[in-house]
Design goal:
The structure holds two protein chains of two kinds. Chain A is of the alpha/beta class. Chain A has 27 helices and 39 strands. Helices cover 32% and strands 22% of the residues of chain A. Classes of the chains: A alpha/beta, B mainly beta. Bound molecules: siroheme, flavin-adenine dinucleotide, iron/sulfur cluster and FE2/S2 (inorganic) cluster. The site of FE2/S2 (inorganic) cluster has 12 residues of chain A, from loops. Chain A: This is Nitrite reductase [NAD(P)H].
Chain lengths: 818, 112
């Protein structure tokens, strides 16, 4: 006698199971198929092309009315099952019908997760799961000027965004993590993906926290972020994840956890009931991609016809196509013991590939831009093949025939002809290449004919690379010092390329500059971070994780792990109130040592890390801010008493020192930058051994640069003599900016001047008034973003609060025992 | 009794960041890498390196803030020419929570 099989849910998994069943045992069951959606099985994955307009719904239907009819399946679409009576083996539909079953199959899929933000129930807030959602988005495209916000930068969210954009909707993606699709992609690939989406015209906001959905007359109007940003929208799509749909199974007392628990035969805790698809949990795993669901479908069909079969949850590769972008990720690409990375980047083509090896095996792969070899890599991962023989060439894929290794020159080769190579002389790549092609085959010849590299010399490395790229073997590259083992480029080259290539984030720079490690090392990260800070003060977001601890927590670490705190005292001038506040803080926080520094200010040494925000708060109340005694940046401006008190004083050295410190505090530079202003040549403020020193004389101000009194002892040299305070300030700021823009990271000004020559510095600042002004202007522009007291940010706004508090204290026995 | 102690949410540690945990066995630095792996090692290698939760993280390594030693966070071994190794403590991530082995309780472990 034919048994009765009732299937709950006409989804991708149950549809496939049904196919296997009718093929292998056409007469075994009398099947009734319920589906809450008012339609039968269709290919849910293909909703993306339906949204983008590449396909119609009819094209993605997998089972037609005829198919159900031919195979004797009774369809009850648009009806859902509301309860199950397992004792009597019946189900109840929403219209009250009670139907008996011999076997029952769950195929109820998942529910999209809706974040319970205020306003989540407004009209116009949707998920992306079914045809109804898709149609809502399609309809929005008909409305001129329509705007949508998508919460979630995973696969689904990006598909929704790309589709909406295709329909002419103005879309913003709001993603909580630092980069897109963080589960499948690493930062570098995430960066490339973001770039591709931004190029399409989609606005992408990462590290963005949604706070509230704002409505008007019951309809969504905008999304509000926790930083107060308001993103107006007519439709809000939440694509933040899915949860197995287990409510019905739970109500029927089947064993569930995250999903409906099934054994290897897809049988639930009730042997008459099977389950398949995203609603199940198998051996602790739940599912979100169709590949394993199709394996489950095969097994469940066998189980229903009484044949042996076992479901094995195999490793899956995600080959993803976010409309128009090629991505691939497979296996496990987290770092781990004994793991090694092989990275290949082709900046010109926007390609990034990373392989993760463990011993002689490939365990993970992430690819962007060129995924042709994905399946081959996936095969190696799945089969655990020994790759030691092909290790060196593995990344080039199966077609590799002994071709060239990774090309360090790729970044230069990729620059467009109008990219600036030599900033001093305004020479672009096209001019240099023209000079080389015109017969200039050495660096000197290029200098002579195109002027490139003829001034500060900072671009020589790039010019040499262009010689090599243009002339091939004919040109022998001189050996050079690279930033670190993560790159073949020198500091100068990296700096210039960041500017010429308009690279504005760390992952972007690492990608375009062909970094050989996924996220650099402690040597290159601080340098890159500085170059980015200096090049794009308004656009680059400083990366604290790429700064040494002193700069990260804005205090100097001591050998016992405590910190020292040095408040700023402009020009070395203080007040009784400030001194009282310092004394009170020293008492209150049990400061073991209070010392006057060599920089004319006071150091509180031995502060506990946890006390830092509190002591900063107290000092801030008294009007003091960070003295940046820890910074590769502006340190102190020492002054002498000058005309105010001294009988020899020629100018107001104290006042000028304060004005300069007011203009310069907060600035970052390649290394620390110290100044002094002294009231006459007796030099009581020691201006002659500073990075920049000013000696006041009767006729004006002598500006000296490049002094040193640390590891090297060097007398500062005269840059210029000027008549007014205003000029002295402008020259100082211009000099600082020239150094900031040109020197390699961790070079003090004297080292940089040794490289570029004092004459060149004079040309830039003294002889070229326009350039001097432009440099000073760029400095002041940058200061708009960096003159923020980092102590106040931490003491008052809670910035980086995780740095100062332990995560947990387990030393308390009661707590440990809980 | 569980072998692990819940010490906080994964999101309490920023990617590439580290947090300190005080335990009867000493101070412990808990790291979260860029790819969301979590490692715990001793904060100090006495006389040689530390406090490591203050270092710069890269890949699966941390660079000591005092003398630039580089340690592999999974094995605790100093890399390159330096020699020394940190105690490594087992961690787990479950449902967005970071769990640390009860071994950090030392003698309290038995009484807990
Ligand atoms: C506090 C202070 C000593 C004092 O008690 O007076 C000091 C303390 C430190 N100096 Fe200094 N320097 C201090 C004035 C100086 C001076 C004198 C000056 O500024 O007039 C010099 C020589 C002038 C110069 O910089 O050229 C000086 C040359 C150095 C150097 C060598 C720099 C060089 O390029 O040759 C270093 C090492 C480095 O920076 O790499 C250094 C590094 C250090 C560090 C940051 C060492 C470190 O990395 O941990 C010390 C921090 C100690 C701590 O416990 O926090 N310190 N240091 C002075 C703080 C001045 C301030 O108010 O900001
Ligand atoms: C836009 C989009 C793009 C995707 N792209 C990909 C991709 O590229 N690659 C990939 O591998 N996966 C992709 N997926 C995921 C894939 O579609 C799912 O993994 C798959 O559809 C799950 O199949 P299922 O049968 O478990 O559930 P579903 O296909 O969701 O079917 C479940 C059905 O059960 C019905 N139902 C629920 N409860 C009841 C009830 N009580 N009574 C009656 N009926 C009920 C539901 O209405 C639904 O129709 C994508 C998903 C979406 C939404
Ligand atoms: S430098 Fe000259 S003006 Fe300044 S305090 Fe010394 S003697 Fe007086
Ligand atoms: S940038 Fe080319 S010489 Fe200065």
């Amino acid at each position: 006698m034919t048994q009765k099989l009732i299937i709950i849910g006409a989804g991708m998994a149950s549809g496939r199971a049904l196919e296997h069943l009718v093929e292998q045992a056409p007469n075994a069951y009398d099947v009734t198929l319920f589906n809450a959606e008012p339609r039968g099985n269709y290919n849910r994955i293909m909703l993306s092309p339906v949204l983008s307009g590449d396909k119609t719904f009819d094209e993605i239907v997998t089972h037609t009315a005829e198919w159900y009819e031919e195979n004797g399946v009774t369809c009850r679409f648009g009806e859902h099952i509301v309860s199950i009576d397992r004792a009597n083996k019946t189900v109840t539909a929403d219209n009250g019908d009670v139907l008996p079953y011999d076997k029952l199959m769950f195929g109820t899929g998942s529910n999209p997760f809706i974040i319970p933000l205020p306003g989540h129930d407004l009209e116009g807030v949707i998920a992306y799961r079914d045809l109804e959602d898709t149609n809502r988005m399609v309809a929005l495209g008909d409305k001129p000027g329509a705007r949508a916000v998508v919460i979630g930068g995973g696969l689904l969210g990006l598909e929704a965004a790309a589709g909406l954009k295709n329909r002419g909707v103005d879309v913003t993606v709001v993603h909580i993590m630092g980069h897109l699709m963080e589960r499948q992609l690493d930062e570098a690939a995430g960066y490339l993906l973001r770039k591709a989406l931004v190029d399409k015209g989609i606005t992408v906001m990462c590290s963005a926290n949604s706070k509230e959905i704002v409505g008007e007359d019951g309809h969504v109007k905008a999304l509000m972020l926790d930083d107060g940003t308001e993103l107006p929208c007519d439709l809000l799509v939440m694509a933040v994840g899915i949860r197995p749909n287990v409510a019905l199974a739970k109500a029927a007392d089947l064993t569930t956890d995250k999903g409906i628990l099934v054994n290897d035969q897809m049988v639930t805790s009730d042997e008459s009931i099977v389950a398949v698809g995203e609603c199940v949990e198998h051996a602790g795993a739940i599912f979100g991609l169709v590949a394993p669901l199709y394996d489950q479908a095969k097994v469940v069909a066998k189980t229903l016809i009484g044949e042996a079969a076992t479901f094995v949850n195999k490793e899956v590769a995600t080959k993803l196509k976010v409309t128009g972008c090629d991505l691939f990720s497979a296996g496990d690409f987290a770092e781990g013991e004994g793991r090694e990375d092989i990275v290949f980047r082709d900046p010109a083509r926007g390609v990034y590939k990373r392989l993760v090896l463990e011993g002689n095996k490939l365990v993970g792969a992430v690819m962007y831009g060129d995924t042709a070899d994905g399946n081959w890599f996936f095969g190696l991962i799945k089969d655990g093949e020994d790759i030691s023989e092909m290790r060196d060439t593995l990344i080039f894929g199966p077609a590799f025939q002994g071709g060239s290794p990774v090309d360090p020159m790729a970044a230069v080769a990729a620059l467009p002809a109008d990219a600036e190579i030599c900033g001093c002389n305004g020479v672009c790549k096209g001019d240099v290449v023209a000079a080389i092609e015109g017969g200039a085959h050495t660096l000197d010849a290029v200098k002579a004919t195109s002027k490139a590299a003829s001034s500060c010399g900072g671009c020589s490395g790039l010019v040499e690379q262009l010689l090599s790229v243009t002339l091939g073997d004919e040109f022998a590259m001189p050996t050079k010092e690279t930033v670190c083992k993560c790159t073949d480029l020198s500091h100068d080259e990296v700096r210039k390329l960041i500017v010429a290539g308009e690279m504005k984030s760390m992952p972007q720079a690492m990608q375009e500059l062909n970094w050989s490690t996924p996220d650099g090392c402690h040597v290159c990260r601080p340098a890159l971070n500085y170059y980015l800070v200096c090049s794009w003060p308004d656009e680059y977001a400083d990366d604290g994780k790429s700064r040494f601890i002193n700069e990260r927590v804005h205090a100097n670490i001591q050998k016992d792990g405590t910190y020292s705190v040095v408040p700023r005292m402009l020009g070395g001038i203080t007040t009784p109130d400030e001194l009282r506040a310092i004394a009170d803080a020293a008492d209150k926080y049990d400061i073991p040592t209070v010392k006057v520094t060599g920089g004319q200010r006071i150091d509180l040494l031995g502060v506990k890390k946890e006390d830092l925000p509190a002591i900063w708060y107290d000092l801030g109340e008294a009007g003091m801010m960070s003295g940046q005694a820890y910074a590769k940046g502006l340190r102190t401006v020492k002054t002498c008493v000058g005309t105010d008190h001294c009988r020899f004083g020629t100018q107001d050295s104290t006042g000028l020192g304060i004005k300069i410190e007011e203009a310069m505090w907060g600035a970052w530079s390649p290394h620390k930058f110290k100044l002094a202003v002294t009231g006459c040549p007796r030099n009581c403020a020691e201006a002659t051994c500073k990075d920049l020193g000013i000696i006041c004389v009767d006729s004006g101000y002598q500006i000296l640069v490049g002094g040193a009194a640390g590891l090297d002892l060097l007398e500062a040299q005269l840059l210029a003599q000027v008549a007014t305070e205003e000029e002295a300030i402008e020259y100082s700021c211009a000099f600082y900016q020239l150094y900031r823009e040109g020197a390699q990271y961790l070079h003090r000004p004297y080292k940089w001047i040794k490289k570029v020559g004092l004459d060149w510095v004079k040309e830039q600042i003294v002889e070229d008034a326009e350039n001097r002004k432009a440099l000073a202007d760029r400095f002041h522009f940058s200061q708009k973003f960096f003159q923020v007291d980092p102590w106040a940010e931490r003491a008052r706004k809670g910035v980086d609060s995780h740095e100062f508090k332990p995560l947990a204290d387990l030393t308390d026995q009661r707590m440990a025992a809980e | 009794m569980s072998q692990f102690i819940d010490i906080g949410a994964l999101n309490d540690i920023p990617p590439r960041g580290a947090r300190l945990v005080r335990a009867p066995e000493g101070e412990i630095a808990v790291f979260r890498t860029a790819t969301d792996a979590v490692f715990a090692v001793d904060e100090w290698l006495p006389g040689k390196a530390g406090p490591l939760s203050n270092g710069i993280q890269h890949g699966q390594c941390v660079t000591d803030p005092m003398y630039n030693w580089v340690f592999d966070l999974e094995t605790g071994e100093a890399q390159g020419a330096d020699e020394g190794s940190l105690r490594v403590w087992e961690t787990r991530i479950e449902n967005g929570r970071v769990l640390l082995t009860r071994d950090v309780l030392g003698e309290l472990r038995a009484s807990a």
